[in-house]
Amino acid sequence: MSQSTNSIDWEMVIGLEIHVRLDTMSKLFSGMKASYGASPNSQVSFLDAGLPGTLPVINHKAIEYALRFGLSVDAEIPSVTVFARKNYFYPDLPKGYQISQMDDPIVGKGHIVINTDDGEKTVEITRAHLEEDAGKSIHDKYDQYSAIDLNRAGTPLIEVVSEPQMSNAKEAVAYMRAIYTRVTHLGICDGNLQEGSFRCDANVSVRPKGQTTLGTRAEIKNLNSFRFIEKAINHEAKRQIKILESGGRIVQETRLYDAENDQTRSMRSKENANDYRYFPDPDQLPIQITTAMIDAQRAHLPEFPEAKIKRYVADLGLKLEDADTIANDLNLSRFYEQSLAQSTAAADFNAKFLLGEFNALLNTHGTAIAESRISADHYAGLLDELHAGTVSRKVAKQILDDMWESGQDAKGIIADQGLGQISDSSELTVLIDQLIKDHPEQVASYRSGNEKMFNFFVGQIMKQTKGQANPVQTKQILEDKLNNE
Amino acid sequence: MINLSVRAMSAMLESKQISVQELCGVYSDRTQAFNADTNALITIHAELNAAELLQAQALLKQGGHPLAGIPLVHKDLFCTHGVKTTCGSNMLAEFVPPYNATVVQKLSDQGMVSIGKANMDEFAMGSSNEHSAFGLVSNPWDLSRVPGGSSGGSAAAVAARMVPIATGTDTGGSIRQPAAFCGITGIKPSYGRVSRYGMVAFASSLDQGGVMAPSADDCGLVLSAMSGHDPLDSTSAQQPQFDWQKPKTPDSKGLKVGVVSAWIEDLQDEGIKQRTLEAIAQLQANGAELVEIDLPHADLAISAYYVLAPAECSSNLSRFDGVRFGHQTEHVTDLESLYRQSRSEGFGQEVQKRIMIGAWALSSGYYDAYYLKAQKVRRLISDDFKQAFSQVDVIACPVSPEVAFKHGDKSEGVSMYQADKFTIPASLAGLPCLSMPIGFTQGLPVGLQLIGNYFAEQSILSLADQYQQQTNFHLQFPEAFA
After folding, report:
1. Which of A195, A295, A371, B272 lies 20 to 30 angstroms, CA to CA, from A394?
2. SS3 state at B360
3. pLDDT tens digits, one per residue of B68-127
4. What predicted TM-score, i.e. pTM, was given to this entire model?
5. What is the ipTM, given to two decimal places?
6. What is the CATH number of the domain that holds B133?
7. Residues of A with CB under 8 A from a CB of B
8. What are the backbone dihedrals phi and psi of residue B71, each rounded to the nearest 5 degrees, phi first?
9. Domains and CATH numbers, chain A
């Protein structure tokens, strides 16, 4: 990366810890509902509030989801997994400890392939463990108090820890995206970045290129956007290089990224870091992971984008670019495949229309495909009308708008508004015969070699039929009539 | 009336010789009369719970419920819905739980009627019941002496016949040692037999609820009702329901009883040694066969225990931070001072000491040397017992090397910890064990400990019951409380 004045070539080393909130109905240990956005402290059980005598009971769905993730990154799955307590005091941590995992995490070593500027790269995953989230501290609502909302306390997370193997911010983003794609495709995370369902801490250090030992790292906490993480890492690396080049020393510390001012600032240094006093949670027995449990989750593994792209190109004849766009967006690919199953239109035609006209419609309304007001079934219905030649692409666009507003299907709209293409050749022949009869001068002009005049006839027919005349048939009949007297 | 077994009281209730109100009234009066002497109870219910009385009467009408209408007290660390649960601490002086512990619920479902909450060493840490924010408890046999601890209030209340039944909890001997000091029977079941849900935790991997009563038969009846798998406690065992069967005869023929002779020979107190030998001779006379066993790692038990239990307690007691419930200091300047002051004011010295020891044993750099090593010792001790139980059915040994000592004679510390050496090994292994009265020395009760194999509560209770069919030590109580 950046060349410095004294010509040291620096290299970044980045490792990520990604927190994935599992999309379970209830919390990790309390059975309390775990939905986002409920009124403060309305989803708090006695356990979540840390009342004495309460005990944790594992939510098996979370175990299943974690296993599913492990399988999706070809990870080692242990036969026994153990919960541990991470002890520290904070008002949004009611028990005074977080139940997490230390020595025997549920997911061991795995790996994932990312796309970089230099082609594919395999990033190793060190581990992934289950843990409960803390509550939320709100410091800016009251002048004299901090407020605590315990709704989030106890919601299930997996923390995915990578090896420090990313060597620039773009790779870090690519890795984060790859994990994001996995967990959303697996159906174990809702992927909502704004709500904190997917957030990450980045460990960043720099070293002169060629050096094998790692530099001292700083940890940037709580990054929840792909854009911020790239900026934050680049900023942090610059800061470290500046210090090192002026003869300084990097302090191992935790830093926060301030997106508004594009800078990181120190939270705490290692010297006053917590000693978390991890130890196995004595309230829970070790959990046995059986092959039956693993096999059950293997059956839930979906097709991932890499495989999907290959299939779209090879079997469906999509262009690589279109295949890539659709396959990497879970909701888009779901919509696409559902419409494929419902429609007789060709797969590549469908893809073009989806990424063209339909996507333009979504953009106009600023709506994600998951919230589309047109269902995949209705969309498929429109494709069929196009395919059958009932409507032109132009009219189809108009129908899309109507479908969006009315919720009606394409057939209904075409029938109600009389938008069907006139493909009945006898009907068209009558119209064309009349046209030729009414415009003798233009006919003569065409026949004497003015070929441009042909478009005049097409235009007239379209005008008369309000664009519903099948253009191919219209042209064919016109050619017949005009060229053969 | 006041020295009847549970079965005898139940028969009187069923035959309407006495009503539930009358029976509970007798004991309520005794708690009022004798609590000034013993300080055994922290809370005495001014009125009995109407719902519990109705439940008792309904079950008596049905018949077949031997515990219906029998009064009891719960150690004050069992959460009782709507009733103060102090844990003997200023930290929880005003804490009123919004729910019942599973044990409390189960016994209430069986028609038992709660008449109060028993005093205890703060957060169950102590062996003398001198460490309660609600005052020390006195031993009914000699009010200048301790009742033992931490379930000292429960033991003293039963010994003074202020109540026929008390629940207790045992982490390293907290049921057995006070039972021995007060001349009653107390059982700590296998770890996992009784739900810990709603028991304020001291050391989660060791804590176990149990029963204290005059006789093994009483204990067996109550234990049957309070045990069983609880989906709210992940460590509660998936075992068939315990169902106490009282032996019909005192004949213990064919039973192999293990003894560690050196443990008895090394007893410094001649009186305890003599009573212990006599009791074992009685077991033999009942037909039991004595087998010498070896528990080579038991000497390490105290060291391991006083790393593991404080380590767990340092974490378990973190929730008492003055933020949501419990004592909150008035001297707050910032978050740090809220924590520091609330905890310094709310916790007593012994609790603070154990939190410090535990936090230190878990801290980075010491974890391997202390916590992990102690876990290894714990496994070795469990293996010793496994080996022993391949040869014997029950192990008989002393409960305590001493009788009840005078108030203030020992400050809590290493010397007091040493007195736990016979009770801690079975705790670390999670085995069922009980203490039963086997006579007196210098006017003070002596107990014998019986340890059984995992989930073999029936075997130790049977042996104790057979002993009690031949002796009457369990029926004796101090004259001052007649």
Report:
1. A371
2. helix
3. 999 999 999 999 999 999 999 999 999 999 999 999 999 999 999 999 999 999 999 999
4. 0.88
5. 0.96
6. 3.90.1300.10
7. 46, 49-58, 85, 87, 89, 91, 94-97, 148, 275, 277-279, 282-285
8. -75, 155
9. 10-296 (no CATH), 305-417 (no CATH), 425-483 (1.10.10.410)
